[in-house]
Amino acid sequence: MKFTVRQIAQLIGGEVEGDDSLEIDQFYKIEEGQKGGISFLANPKYEAFIYKTGSSAVIVADSFIAKDSINSSLIKVKDPYSSFSVLLSEYEKLNKKKKVGISALAFIDPTAELSENVYIGNFSQISENSKIGEGSVIYPQVFIDENVTIGKNCILYAGVKLFADTVIGDNCTIHGGAVIGCDGFGFAPQKDGTYKNVPQTGNVILGDNISIGSNSSIDRATIGSTIIKNGAKIDNLVQVGHNVTIGKNTVIASQTGIAGSTKIGDNCSVGGQVGFAGHLEVANGTKIGAQSGINTDVVKENLTLNGTPHMEMRKHQRSLVFFRKLPELDKRISDLEKKKDN
Amino acid sequence: MKFTVRQIAQLIGGEVEGDDSLEIDQFYKIEEGQKGGISFLANPKYEAFIYKTGSSAVIVADSFIAKDSINSSLIKVKDPYSSFSVLLSEYEKLNKKKKVGISALAFIDPTAELSENVYIGNFSQISENSKIGEGSVIYPQVFIDENVTIGKNCILYAGVKLFADTVIGDNCTIHGGAVIGCDGFGFAPQKDGTYKNVPQTGNVILGDNISIGSNSSIDRATIGSTIIKNGAKIDNLVQVGHNVTIGKNTVIASQTGIAGSTKIGDNCSVGGQVGFAGHLEVANGTKIGAQSGINTDVVKENLTLNGTPHMEMRKHQRSLVFFRKLPELDKRISDLEKKKDN
Amino acid sequence: MKFTVRQIAQLIGGEVEGDDSLEIDQFYKIEEGQKGGISFLANPKYEAFIYKTGSSAVIVADSFIAKDSINSSLIKVKDPYSSFSVLLSEYEKLNKKKKVGISALAFIDPTAELSENVYIGNFSQISENSKIGEGSVIYPQVFIDENVTIGKNCILYAGVKLFADTVIGDNCTIHGGAVIGCDGFGFAPQKDGTYKNVPQTGNVILGDNISIGSNSSIDRATIGSTIIKNGAKIDNLVQVGHNVTIGKNTVIASQTGIAGSTKIGDNCSVGGQVGFAGHLEVANGTKIGAQSGINTDVVKENLTLNGTPHMEMRKHQRSLVFFRKLPELDKRISDLEKKKDN
């Protein structure tokens, strides 16, 4: 399937600079571009590649000013990454066939309710009283426990496990191996040094348009619900403890861990390998650098934080500058001490 | 099923303050309490909620003194969290039906031995010479390799994988997606820069009353055994390397990693995202703060440690205070230098 | 099966000191050695055990000089760990029976191509147009999506998921629960604060002789490929983002995370729980200490780095020395300030 540069520009509302009749049938990263391909330039770090890419066309920002000659046709748009993403979506729509049908090798409990146009893959189990919404796709080897409700147009990839009473909204994507609704980590210490298991009787509730990464673990609440709100995007290998709340459109990168009962606000952005202590409240719009450790409430909105324990990013970076110079600071103090003594 | 406040107080050995005839049929977090519900107050951080909770009853500590008027009946006990946990357990006993029976869709090797009252779910496999103890529950999609032994009254949730020769004691709970007995990470460097696989011929041994979190990985020993002792509780996404030993009643929070051959003592408590270097010995009763890095032996018992590399908690916190003030320290040195020069 | 110390010495090209007629039929860790067993001593930390081990024989380095009397026969070799590993491999060859055959309980799509001598376990799925190379072993409950290609003599343990278009070379081992080819974490921010999913249309390509640890996640590329090169060894619970490249014979320990588009060179060695920011280039031969955070390019080869953000190991360790002394530095400054004032 081929499209001209002109057709693509129309699709994404861009303006062409150069030959708009070139034919495109492939996507390339700008540094690997070849004839017949289209690439994009969003991160300035990659600008050098636009002057030597083999791609026939490159999507760039309106504001882009070339510092050298470029062989490719340019399509100028407001937000190149977003426009490229629209293009990929169109491509996917044309190429990916929708999975539908229920495998004879799946186990569907007679009390389960399957809506129309669902797909249930081989060796998957849909247990008692669970409901799968219209158009949802359940890959092979998925486990859906009792009383689980899944909305419309969700995708659950192979190996996903949803334990009892989990509720999932519409248009959610759960990646392979994610475990949702397992017991929270609750143990009451006893006098003899052993721990007694605290039953986890709550559940997990996911809103709409949520993405959960592969091999992530989201624990059910002790009582009440662990809640992830509409539009939140959670990466791979993330730990979400019992009774946690994650706000709307909050994005959490890989390997972050959130201890029990912490509430993260809306529109937050959390880097990879961040740790949150339990029972915290983190305000809307907080941005947190990778590997930070958040151990007290974040009350003010829209702060940018970094470090363990967290500080405001700028202050943390100033302290880090001097951390690197610590041997030098010691030397300066020693020099002062010596002079003093003379 | 309803119980009066009086009946509940009797069950958990507490004393009622207020109306003991109120009826309870639901658990609530104190901040979400409603009529007919019971809550508990253990963490002082949540005290404010007791003065406005809608719950009909709240379990509190003997020592609790109200600073304001409270609408709920109080049940006073020694340890509110523990008592609430007893209540949840009773509730679960009444409500959770025990799974029993062997699915026709499971694969059971003819040489496998299943004791009485076991449950084996759909699409699970019990391989050659493996044994499942009385009353154990094997959810669907569990893989049990050859020569695995599982004790009595264990629960293995969906997607658990136990590789060859693993031994599990009684009353253990293994959460979804946990992998036990996979190869340790052992590679011998060769002259040409490649690595040669070192066969991992040992196994994993778990004692009794152990909990392993979802998506955790516990590697088999190179030779001998990786050992987890009675009563240890391990959270989600934890890495336990080959030939590690974890002591009795030691609790390890999510995303912690323990490198090969390290021995952690009894009654330790380890925060989330902690890292242990290999070949260490960590004394009994050690407490370790989240995100710490332990890179030398911990010889003395009952220390509280923090930071990377670890320091005693108090010393680490003092250093952190000055880390935050580093730009200021630099300024003070500069001021001294200037005066000096005059 | 028994061998004499002499036979073992011949097998690994070592020289015997002591009785070479003793019979060996078991491997032991040096600290747990018993009669009839063989151990090795590579890490000097364990030297004390050689003077009291019960093992009949111990493999030691040529350069080893005993400081006390030893009861065991010694086999002297260049590299004890490597020689011991050779021995374990021989043992495994004799004892492990090769799995072959295709389970009637697996789902094999009619368009899939299976080479000779493959093993496909129960409840595994091989989807459309996928190919399994000669001698490869697919454990039970493995999911292989469409258009996946697997080379010769690979082992995929239970619960592995390979998503569409993944390519795997020869002699690769993928441990239980690893997810390869799931979507990268790509979302384009919209004006209203929501995020739009960026389709991930690329794939994952693994070379030959690669090991991937249990419960690790390797994301497919947005466009192009996420690439892991020949001989790389990746531990458990590791996150590899979209469009990442990992070089030849690079070793990455558990729980490390690599953000999108970062390229790690050949022969690197990365400790556990390390984080890499996205879009970085890390030079060949870089060594990185556990829990480090790499947030800028590493241009020079063969550096040893540590800390967050990373510094050269020696410099980082000097700064850490003074971090521990920060309260003391403050005191010294205060003393100077006081004297000044007098």
Observed structural traits:
homotrimer; 342 residues; alpha/beta; Udp-n-acetylmuramoylalanyl-d-glutamate--2,6- Diaminopimelate Ligase, Chain: A, domain 1; UDP N-Acetylglucosamine Acyltransferase, domain 1; 2 domains; 12-stranded mixed β-sheet; 10-stranded parallel β-sheet; 4 helices; 40 strands; UDP-3-O-acylglucosamine N-acyltransferase (chains A, B, C); lipid biosynthesis (chains A, B, C); repeat (chains A, B, C); lipid a biosynthesis (chains A, B, C)
In short:
Three copies of one chain form a homotrimer. The first copy, chain A, is of the alpha/beta class and 342 residues long.
Mean pLDDT of chain A: 95
CATH topology call of the largest domain in chain A: UDP N-Acetylglucosamine Acyltransferase, domain 1
How many beta-strand elements of chain A? Answer: 40
Unreliable residue stretches of chain A: none
Helix content of chain A: 10-25%
The CATH H-level homologous superfamily of the largest domain in chain A: Hexapeptide repeat proteins
Content-based structural category of chain A: alpha/beta
End-to-end Cα distance of chain A, whole Å, is 85 Å
Largest sheet of chain A: 12 strands, mixed
Strand content of chain A: 25-35%
Shape of chain A: flat
Pathway (chains A, B, C): Bacterial outer membrane biogenesis; LPS lipid A biosynthesis
EC number (chains A, B, C): 2.3.1.191
Subunit structure (chains A, B, C): Homotrimer.
Keywords (chains A, B, C): Acyltransferase, Lipid A biosynthesis, Lipid biosynthesis, Lipid metabolism, Repeat, Transferase
